[in-house]
Specification:
Blueprint lengths: L1 H7 L6 E8 L5 E8 L2 H10 L3 E7 L10 H16 L4 H11 L3 H15 L4 H6 L7 H13 L2 H55 L8 H37 L1 H13 L4 H21 L4 H12 L2 H15 L4 H8 L4 H13 L2 H56 L1
Antiparallel strand pairs: 1-2, 1-3
Helix pairs in contact: 3-4, 3-8, 4-5, 7-8, 8-9, 8-11, 8-16, 9-10, 10-11, 11-12, 11-16, 12-13, 13-14, 14-15, 15-16
Length: 408
């Protein structure tokens, strides 16, 4: 009951104050403190024997963006230092001084100041939900309660590193074809706007009928020159509309996630990566001592796909009523037989976290292989596409050259 009351209590908005004063020996001291107001800062410093001479709220300056990679590196560093016996507050000092990103340094200093005032580490992390999600905070809270914070942070660091690796592989698989399509679009635009009109002026003095492919390409160029602004407006407007619809509508997100899993080439890679994230998240939380029903709260969202989020909620409901995890996963009908068999072995042997982790390893390797195969498959297809489109345009524009001799 106490924990529920703590979670539901309103969070007081706090600010970072820079202060200056004199200690009991008359020596000038200065520092920073995170508090809800000036009165809190003054009373806190007076209790410490500091006679305050100056207090000011620190201005928020831009100093770079805090990325997922920064949080992963911080988690790994904090885990290593705690394992080495470095005190928690000193660890934050070392990490903050070791980064060149001012935004990251400010974040760690604010968390350190919050911990100094008596908050637990998980409570301090919860005040920064953009950087520390519910899964991160729940695991840190479990580690604090069990006295194994260093071990939990190491598991979290490994988990985040693996998740970043999977996302990086998916992005690399999509980046190459996307970049080639954009480059092809730029080349086609230049050809349509500048190259083909130059050929058209030359062909007007030939005194002979132009071949049908050449006439078709010239007609396409004339249409593009007349309506290029409208075409680009529709293209960018459609892209903006789809992006905003995806951001604002959960129905659109669900439709996009379902479509992503059914794509002919990329769908299987996305499915394997989603299953790998699902398994890795559940394995990490279960190994940290989080009860299975509570662990499933964070697993669905961490998978990154609404199809698996919905399936996870169904699994959680069945598990909470006494159904085994294996049967619940089988009823969800979104996991391959190998995953269900590994989960069954884990439940029977009492090593569910280990078996889920091994399943995640298998699917991560399959993602690696699928991305490599995808790159090998797409490269010749893209080259063939460029050859047909751009090469076809070039051939169509040079066909009249062969008739030039006949006219002469």
């Amino acid at each position: 009951m106490a924990s529920k009351a703590l979670v539901s209590a309103p969070v007081v908005k706090e600010f970072t104050f820079q202060w200056e004063g004199r200690d009991r020996n008359g020596k000038t001291v200065r520092g920073e403190m995170r508090a809800g107001g000036l009165a809190v800062v003054n009373s806190s410093l007076r209790r410490q024997g500091v006679m305050v001479t100056k207090v000011a709220k620190r201005r928020q300056r831009s100093g770079g963006k805090i990325t997922e990679k920064d949080i992963t590196l911080f988690t790994r560093q904090l885990s290593t230092m705690l394992r080495s016996g470095v005190p928690l507050l000193q660890s934050f000092d070392i990490v903050a001084k070791g980064t060149s990103n001012n935004a990251v340094a400010r974040l760690f200093n604010e968390i350190k100041a919050d911990v100094e005032t008596g908050s637990s580490l998980s409570q301090s992390f919860r005040k920064f939900p953009l950087q520390f999600d519910a899964l991160f905070c729940n695991l840190v809270g479990a580690g604090e309660q069990a006295g194994i914070l260093d071990d939990i942070l190491e598991r979290l660091a490994t988990y985040k590193e693996k998740m970043q690796a999977i996302r990086g592989k998916i992005k690399s698989a999509l980046f190459y074809p996307a970049s080639v399509v954009v480059a092809a679009g730029v080349v086609l635009t230049v050809i349509m706007l500048f190259v083909i009109p130059a050929f058209k002026q030359v062909f007007e003095g030939f005194g002979a009928n132009l071949p049908a492919p050449t006439m078709m390409v010239i007609a396409m160029s004339d249409f593009f020159i007349s309506y290029w602004y409208l075409m680009f407006g529709i293209l960018f407007g459609t892209g903006y509309f789809l992006r905003e619809s995806w951001r604002r509508s959960e129905e659109v997100q669900i439709a996009v996630d379902r479509l992503a899993l059914q794509l002919p080439v990329f769908g299987e890679v996305i499915r394997k990566a989603t299953i790998a994230r699902w398994l890795r998240t559940l394995s990490t939380m279960f190994a940290a001592g989080v009860p299975l029903v509570e662990a499933l709260d964070s697993v669905g969202g961490a998978s990154g796909n609404h199809v698996y989020l919905t399936a996870t909620r169904r699994i959680q409901q069945e598990v909470s009523t006494g159904t085994s995890l294996t049967i619940a996963m089988q009823n969800a009908n979104v996991f391959p037989n190998m995953v269900i068999q590994m989960a069954s072995i884990g439940e029977e042997s009492g090593s569910l976290d280990s078996m889920l982790g091994k399943s995640a390893d298998i699917f991560e390797r399959e993602v690696d292989d699928a991305v490599a195969s995808l790159s090998s498959l797409l490269e010749p297809l893209i080259m063939a596409f460029l050859g047909v489109v751009i090469g076809g345009l070039v051939v169509a524009m040079y066909l009249p050259i062969f008739k030039l001799g006949q006219v002469v």
